[in-house]
Amino acid sequence: MSQPVRVRYAPSPTGSPHIGNTRTALFTWLFARGHGGVFVLRIEDTDRERFVPGSQEMIEEGLRWLGLDWDEGPGKGGDYGPYVQSERLGLYREYSDQLVAEGKAYRCYCTQDRLTSMREQQTAAGLPPGYDRRCRDLTPEQRAEEEAKGSPFVIRIKMPLDGVTTFHDEVLGDISFENRLLDDFVAIKSDGGSLYNFANVVDDHLMGITHIIRGNEFVSSTPRFINLYNHFGWEPPKFAHCSLLTGPGGAKLAKRHGAVGVLEYRDQGMLPEAVFNFLSLLGWSPGDDRELMSRDEILQAFSLEGLTKHPAFFDVEKLVWMNGEYIRSCSIDRLAELLVPHLVSAALLPADPSEADLAYLKRIVPLIQERVKRLSEVPEQVAFFYADSLDYDPKGVKKWLSSAETPALLRSVADALGDLDAWTIDGIEAAVRSAGESMGASGGKVIHPVRMAVTGRTTGPGLFEAMEVLGRDRCLHRLKAAEGLVPVD
Question: How far from 117 is each of 137, 138, 175, 182, CA to CA, in Å?
């Protein structure tokens, strides 16, 4: 690069961070880190009607969870702050006044009623809606009259009336827009607040942003940016528009397709490295068929040239599969640590687990690790390890604990387990199978009733491994309790 890379992620605090915006942040972060550049976080909160309290904190929390650390921005500072747009309103008015003085912008006094009527007429005539530039060429006398009346006004930016605006996109190539289709957009509202298209350009220039990576849906606003840069005599940054994210069949991505906020994926039990890996491959290719890639591998391979033009299908099932793969690669200690919040939330662990609690959990983890796809599934899978009394699966009870011979079978197993010298997996298995055979119940005919008795369910981790963790006393107690589930004629 001819100059140091400076890029920004500039979300609006209007709710939980959307997964598509988070992908943009990830691509931007990768580009910055790959070029030794600066990653700036800027909060674009000029749209106060859509502002949601707490959103900025959620945005920052989501970035931290994914490991997308920023170099400048809220909580970090920097030489180009403040990094929250509502704290920069004076700058926007200063620069808009400059354009008005230079004849590149103008005050528009049109009322909301007039604008609404104008759009209705345009729609009825089959014309594209857009401002008709009524106030663009008011005479000095007309403007003086409006000022004397104290008419409220907005500031609009003059767009070229003919020709084309062309810019080069790092992903899509050269793109041209007919200027006659660009209306004179509002830069400053009547209350003095700035709108996105204007504040964005001012901030990007003043913060020295060299590259803008954003979603394909913003391509159509780029000619406005380019003309603003031309008005100010500033050099535009380079643009790279990422492909759209879609649901099945090319449908617009929605929550029903599994696309939720990044923090919701965390709460569902997705691992940050799985979400990082998954998002990186939505609209970017490393140039081969790799799917499971570490953060370092992605960072080394990432380039703007790898961004794809075609829409990227958001396949939540692939994310779930990928998450399962990362869970299986976790160490026992880390997986136990990740599971603690989910088990606390399910009231299986206290808010401040003891060393004994954690040691017990680490004995459980290897038994369920191969089966888990989301951490949020685990509390239901391991509840029987913590329960004082079991919630039995009714179908399992009917199938495996309803025979008149079952109480005697369970007593025989309990007696054999009670006589074991050492409570080991091999010893437990030998005792259960031997007791079953003595009652004429081999294989599944003894294993399934015992599983139902000690776990309350028909499926789960290996029976003998689970019993070894549960301990002798708990297993004997449950075998005794299960005798009472057998119907009496």
Answer: 20, 20, 33, 20
